[in-house]
Amino acid sequence: MSKHIRAMLATLLIVTGVLVFLPSGYVSAGGAVENPGFERGEDEVPLGWNLTGNATRVDTPPIYAGNWSARIIGEGDMLTQWVGNISAGTIFEAWGWIHVSGNVTGVIAVDFWYRTEDVESQLSSTAILSATDTGGIYVQKAGLMQAPTQTTHVRIRLLGTGWSDGAEVRFDEIGFWVPAGGYCFIATAAYGSPMAEEIQILREFRDAYLITNPVGKALVDLYYRVSPPMAEFITGHPGLKPIVRATLVPAVAMSTVAVNTTPVQKAAMIGVLALIVVALAVWATKRRGRGPQYT
Ligand SMILES: [Ca+2]
C-alpha cells in the first residue's frame, strides 16, 4: 500500500468510526406534514389531522414544543394525515417526538398509497417508528423509507398498541420530508443504500447520543461538512466498499449495544470507543511514519 492510500484509509477509519452520522431529523418543521406541532386548529380539532376514537389535541403538559400536543389514551385512538404529490422512488425521512407513560407502545405508522378518484390501494408494507415507556421525556424517532413505484400519497398515522389502563401517548412535531442534508454519506456509499439495517442502527445511535449534547452535535456538524467528498470517492472506487464496511463493523456493533443497554453499560461502551479511537490514531500515525517511501 502506498503511504497515500494508507493515510487515506487511516483517516477513513477514524472519521467513519466516530462520525458516521448526519443531522437531519432535528428540524422542527414538519416538511410535507401540515400542522406538525398541532399548534393550529380550533379547540381540540387540529388542522390537517383527522382524529378518531378518543384522540385529542391538548394544551396540558407534557408538551414537546409550542402550546399543543396530540394525546391518545386507548385502543382505536388515532390521528391520521394524508400527504399528496409524493414522487415514486424518492427516499423520504419521517420523524416525530413521542412521550409514552404507562404500559403501551406509541407508534408512528407510515405507508405509501396509490390514490385517484376511483382507486385507493396501499403499495407498501407499513413502516413503524415506535417508543415504549420514555421515562418522562419526549424521544425522537426517525426513519428513512422509499416511496414504491406508482406512489401518489403517503398516510401517516399516530396510534398506540398494547394498551393497559391509565396509559397515555403524546405526539408532537411530526415530520415527513426529503432529507435536505442528504444521508449518512460514507455509510451509504459503503452499503449502497441509505436504508441498510446497519445505517438505521447508526442513525438511532446518532439520535440518542450525539445530537442530544453539544459535543455530539459539533461532531455531527463536522461530519456533515467533511464526509460528502469522501463518500463520493468511495462511490467512485467500489473496491473500497468492503474495507469501509469492515471499518464500520465496530461502530455498528457498539451502536447496537448502546441503544439496548443500561447507563452503566453505556459508560463502559463509551470508554471502549474512546480507547479504540486513540488506538487507531496511534496506529495510523506509526504506520505512516514507518511506511516505505515511494515518491
Ligand atoms: Ca406542539
Superfamily at the CATH H level of the largest domain? Galactose-binding domain-like
SSE series: HEEEEEEEEEEEEEHHHHH
Over the alpha carbons, how many angstroms does the gyration radius reach? 22 Å
Using the coordinates above, name the CATH class of the largest domain.
Mainly Beta
The number of helical runs is 6
Annotated CATH architecture of the largest domain? Sandwich
Whole-number tally of structural domains: 2
Number of strands: 13
Strand content: 25-35%
Net shape: globular
Q: What is the straight-line distance between the termini?
A: 13 Å
Please give a structural write-up.
- The protein is α+β, with helices and mostly antiparallel strands.
- The protein folds into two domains: 130 residues, no CATH class; 137 residues, Galactose-binding domain-like (Jelly Rolls), CATH 2.60.120.260.
- The protein is built from six helices and 13 strands.
- Strands 3, 6, 8, 9, 10 and 12 form a six-stranded antiparallel β-sheet that branches.
- The chain is globular.
- About 4% of the residues have low confidence.
- Bound molecules: calcium ion.
- The site of calcium ion has 9 residues, from loops.
- Calcium ion (CA) binds next to loops.
Question: Layout of helices and strands, plus pairs?
Answer:
Layout: H1 3-18, E1 41-42, E2 45-46, E3 50-52, E4 56-58, E5 69-72, E6 78-83, E7 91-101, E8 105-115, E9 120-122, E10 127-132, E11 139-146, E12 153-161, E13 168-177, H2 185-191, H3 197-210, H4 214-236, H5 241-258, H6 263-290
The structure holds calcium ion.
